[in-house]
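for the writeup, i need someone to sanity check this before i put it in the appendix. the sequnce is what the collaborator sent (i think, or maybe the updated version? ugh). structure was predicted straight from it, no edits. if anything looks off just tell me and ill rerun, i have time this weekend
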Amino acid sequence: MKKGQTLQDLKRLLPASLLAGLLGGGLIVFLKSYAYYWCWYDLLGLCHGIFFTIGYAHTLVLCFLTLFLTGMLAVALQQGEVGGQAQAVFAGGVSGCMAFFVIMVHTLVSDLLRDWVTDHVGFLIDSISYILVNFASTLFPALIVAAFATLGALLLFSSREKAATPEENARALRLVIGSTILIILVLLFLPPLVTHLMFSAGMIEAYPVWTFISLERTAPDTIVLAAHEVLPACALATPPYSVYIDGIDVSNASAAAASGLAVTVEPADGLQPFEGSQATWKGAVFEDNSTPVRVVVHRADGSASDLQIEYLKVRVSLN
């Protein structure tokens, strides 16, 4: 009878725990996918590579705090029906597993919708097969996520357990959850806000660390490459940019004429190293809508004594 009662208690905890995990997982997806770029994206291309580390660390801390909040919600949504630490652990663990499931689904769907994926069914089958084959490596991060959510559930349960009256219980719930939400909001906005203000005030010197090359298809047989945030060091190389179409050099008019692709380049010197520079490639190779065309720009980035070649790869599916 006692065992049956325990199972009934755990089943009763499931709906609210799953809902808490769904909310927590959705918030984590928002933080790591959207809030990260809103907070840090315009700083990632500046002189200080440490902003990559700061941005990821900032997002990681927010995600851990969100997992704590997820476990707390799993207990709070039970409306006082959590009867002991074991049930709090169960509620927190279930919410953490649900949050991990939401994150995995978002990652899978995001990859599935990328431009370079042409066989969606095959990609989905391969991804699921990979997860099943590497189940142990998938289980480990799931356990970490569940552990953080469980800690949050235990924290809220212990705070409520110390309350002597229902009023104190409700006050403890509001205090713990409210404080956690406040900490998340402060950490979400304060570090990037301070960093942006420091840049605006000139306290941190800013200059680009890479050249961004954009690609636009302006006609069925025409693409235009444009250079943005151009580094002065790019002018040291000859040519400053090397452009390849499906592995064939078409950097300028002479290279295109020798490529055998029947591609023309305008201007004849190709893409030049100054802000807003544009060059046009025109040819029948771009007209086949069923075949993806791979355009690779080799960017020269370095000094006269140390020339480092980096690669910017743009895959365009001509739809």
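Residues 2-44 form the longest helix (43 residues). The chain has two domains: 2-200, 212-316.
thx in advance!!
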